[in-house]
Design a protein that fits this description.
Number of helices: 5
Largest sheet: 15 strands, mixed
Oligomer: single chain
Strand order of the largest sheet: 1-2-3-6-9-12-15-18-21-24-27-30-33-36-39
Distance between the termini: 126 Å
Radius of gyration: 35 Å
Number of strands: 43
Length: 537
């Protein structure tokens, strides 16, 4: 082999070694790619499995915190109440451990069937007040499980669209974070059909409260159908610079029952209307019976925004009977206790019609009643009968002490009421009240009696601003017969009336009173009402 041949073979060997190196490198790369692909495939399979495992574990943890026995689900301290709500079937009972706290923004889910799911304390019936009796939180707080929101701006309980047939018994509902919005929210006001409204939801012997220092915007937004709130205690519903209500109803056509509760709120203890909704519904066929509506007097020094005890801005066929309403003063408004006022903040179709306000006691307010039908669909057919209005005192509570302010109404009957007020009987203005009846009442004339805006008082006002309505059969203390054309009784002092015991607040006519059956139609004059039986128990 010569030198030329030797160089040739040397070059060939170098190229072979280089090629071999490239083959090994490619093989290594291919192996690496296969390994990477294997890793990716493994991860792709493992991640869903891991997620499923986590979900299964969490679900197991949620389910394992529940004790399930036939139709009962028991949730102990630390357990998952939402999981119990989701799992429960119609007819089931969810027992929440007495005294335990459960935190979350809980949602009532949609279920099939028409049997109630009952959510209640695990305490026995014997540890709660009997059915039909109002709960006293001082006495029963220790046996009530507490539900509390842990999400700012979210209610403790809300109902999904169309949720139905849930009943709460013996449960405490704590204030929301910073007292924002609603503790319990039934309905969103954004429902697009009546079928989307929550319905058949009940609260019996529950305790709902705001924070003593921060207050609470609202206790219950009851915008559903067939809603019942009974035998319960709602307190510390108060705010500065905004509205507050123990119970508000505005985005439903009802019915709603509010029976035998203690209700404490600054702006309005109970409000119908006051805001609009997509469906533009009118709260209808509602009952407010045997409740105590109250504002603690010490609030007056604390600066909460106080307005009224009871107000309807939008409502139809609402009966308000046998309620005790106490303490209302001038603050954010002029201090009128009871308002029937159509307002377009309820929507332009807002209307008030076929309302009965009967057998109530309104005690301690700057003014008594405001009747205003100048907006929306107006006001029609309001009856105020057999009520005590006492301590309606402008000097004491910060207003003018009138019994009634009125304008623009059709169909107003005021009869058999006993009214102890410091100001005028009526202050009328604007358009007249038509079909007006004021008879068989006991009332004080005071300085102006029935007065009109920029007018005098007495019959000229009745003729013009009450459309020649009837004012007859009344005892008008301090009044003059020359101011009225119809038959009334004009006494110089309250002592001549013949009350059973005015000093102790019994304003019924005693059996020997000369005016017992001297009213229009031979009926008694004033209210016949046993104060001890008013306001529930």
């Amino acid at each position: 082999m010569n030198l030329e041949q030797s160089g040739y073979w040397t070059q060939v060997q170098k190229e072979r070694r280089k090629r071999l190196h490239q083959i090994k490198k490619q093989a290594a790369a291919n192996h690496s790619n296969k390994s990477l692909l294997l890793i990716i495939l493994t991860i792709a399979v493992a991640l869903p499995l891991a997620a499923f495992g986590i979900y299964s574990y969490n679900n197991y943890q949620s389910e394992s915190s529940l004790v399930i026995s036939e139709n009962t689900i028991t949730v102990r301290q630390g357990g998952n109440f939402q999981a119990a709500l989701n799992r429960a079937k119609p007819g089931n009972t969810i027992l929440l451990e007495a005294g335990a706290t459960f935190e979350g923004a809980f949602k009532l889910p949609v279920k099939t069937g028409s049997e109630f799911i009952t959510i209640r304390t695990s305490a026995t019936d014997a540890q709660l007040p009997p059915a039909g009796r109002r709960i006293d939180p001082k006495k029963y707080a220790a046996v009530l499980p507490k539900l509390k929101s842990n999400v700012k701006g979210e209610p403790v309980i809300s109902a999904l669209k169309g949720a139905h047939h849930f009943r709460f018994v013996g449960v405490e509902f704590a204030p929301t974070i910073e007292g924002l919005y609603n503790i319990i929210e039934l309905g969103t006001t954004e429902e697009k059909s009546v079928e989307e409204l929550p319905h058949h939801i009940e609260f019996d012997r529950v305790y709902i409260h705001g924070s003593p220092s921060e207050g609470q915007r609202r206790g219950i937004a009851a915008n559903g159908k067939f809603i019942k709130i009974t035998n319960s205690y709602i307190s510390d519903i108060k705010r500065k610079g905004e509205e507050s209500q123990a119970i508000a109803v505005w985005a439903t056509d009802g019915p709603v029952e509010i029976v035998n509760n203690y209700l404490e709120a600054a702006a309005e203890n109970i409000l119908f209307g006051g805001a609009g909704s997509v469906l533009k519904l009118v709260p209808t066929d509602c009952v407010v019976r045997e409740n105590h509506l109250n504002k603690p007097v010490h609030w007056r020094e604390e600066g909460w925004d106080v307005k009224n005890l009871f107000e309807i801005k939008n409502g139809r066929r609402i009966k308000v009977e046998n309620n005790l309403m106490t303490n209302n003063w001038m603050r954010a408004q002029e201090g009128t206790a009871v308002l029937f006022t159509t307002r377009e903040d309820s929507g332009k179709s807002a209307v008030i019609e076929d309302i009965e306000f009967v057998n109530n006691i309104v005690r301690g307010s700057a003014n008594a009643v405001n009747v205003y039908g100048a907006e929306g669909g107006g006001g029609h057919r309001l009856t105020i009968r057999n009520n005590f209005f006492e301590d309606i005192n402008g000097a004491k509570w910060g207003g003018t002490g009138y019994f009634m302010k009125s304008t623009d109404w059709d169909g107003l009957t005021i009869e058999n009421n006993t009214i102890i007020q410091s100001g005028s009987i009526a202050s009328a203005y604007g358009k007249p009240v038509k079909n007006f009846i004021f008879r068989n009442n006991i009332v004080f004339e005071n300085e102006y009696g029935i007065k009109g805006d920029s007018m005098g008082s007495g019959q000229e006002v009745i003729d013009k601003l009450f459309s020649n309505g009837t004012v007859t059969g009344n005892i008008i203390i301090g009044g003059k017969s020359s101011l009225y054309k119809e038959k009334n009784f004009f006494l110089s002092s309250i002592g001549q009336v013949g009350f059973v015991n005015a000093e102790k607040g019994d304003y019924r006519l005693r059996s020997g009173s000369p005016f017992l059956n001297q009213g229009f139609g031979g009926k008694r004059i004033g209210a016949d009402l046993d104060a001890k039986l008013v306001g529930g128990k």
